């Protein structure tokens, strides 16, 4: 199977909302929910993609030829590449009935582990979603990162027990999901979390805790204050609030704010290994890709996921070689140029 064949298969399998576009740039689905779009006009998702394209890489081949090393370490684990699959929930609603959350996570977690990276799993209103996700992580011997929505504390504690039973090496919370309509109307209240509430959640985790949904330096420092081990610079794929800046626009200032005191990841519109390189040059430790992995699963199952991992990994390695970086640590800001 080639990448093009996988993409063509996905276009026939993925349902009526997502178009499985050759380039996932947020335009075809901009304000479509259900679907991968947004609750507003969808301008933030489009901006996410376009701002990465405005950054160019600086070619330099007058360097000693060495083997390029793309390996990445986090929380005591070593991975082939510095990118992960992002959390996606309610796939049968948004992407078509070929998969439900249980079968999707089963494929994604296993395939990512076999490909040498790790998958983050999604969460949902149905309690079976987290149950299935953590079971998939357990089968992968803890090589997965369950991602919990910002529910009320009682619900979070129950889900955290499932995470602990899975043996997951880390857990995340997508606090940016606070903008999703189904969280706003919950009783007890769900959504935004104070620093004190987040600290209580972090303390209950017993494994490294990742806060997804940071868009300011101030927010990053709040996550640090709460005890988080890492953050993900994210605006929830541009799905929850129009008129946000792109993640590429705020990444650098957030990296500077935390001063190396915690791991910083970024998502939002990153669609190639070249984009991964740009994010690392701006100071990110690694990146998260979500929607393209959905296309990979729907288009080719485990084979599709492995194909996509090799595509992005190969593009990253080639960019490093052509820009004179033989390891991730050697990727520097002077290797990119902002338009």
TrEMBL record:
Where in the sequence is the active site? 236 (proton acceptor)
Where glyoxylate binds, per the record, is at 239
Catalyzed chemical reaction(s): (S)-lactate + O2 = pyruvate + H2O2
Any Pfam family from its record, for instance, is FMN_dh
- Ranges where the FMN hydroxy acid dehydrogenase domain occurs: 37-339
Kindly state which keywords UniProt assigns to this record, in alphabetical order.
Answer: Flavoprotein, FMN, Oxidoreductase
Q: What is this protein called?
A: L-lactate oxidase
Is Oxidoreductase there in the keyword field? Answer: yes
> Can you tell me which family this protein belongs to?
Belongs to the FMN-dependent alpha-hydroxy acid dehydrogenase family.
Cofactors named for this entry: FMN
Source species:
Suipraeoptans intestinalis
GO molecular function terms listed in the Swiss-Prot or TrEMBL record: FMN binding; oxidoreductase activity
Q: Which of this chain's residues are annotated to bind FMN?
A: 212, 234, 236, 267-271
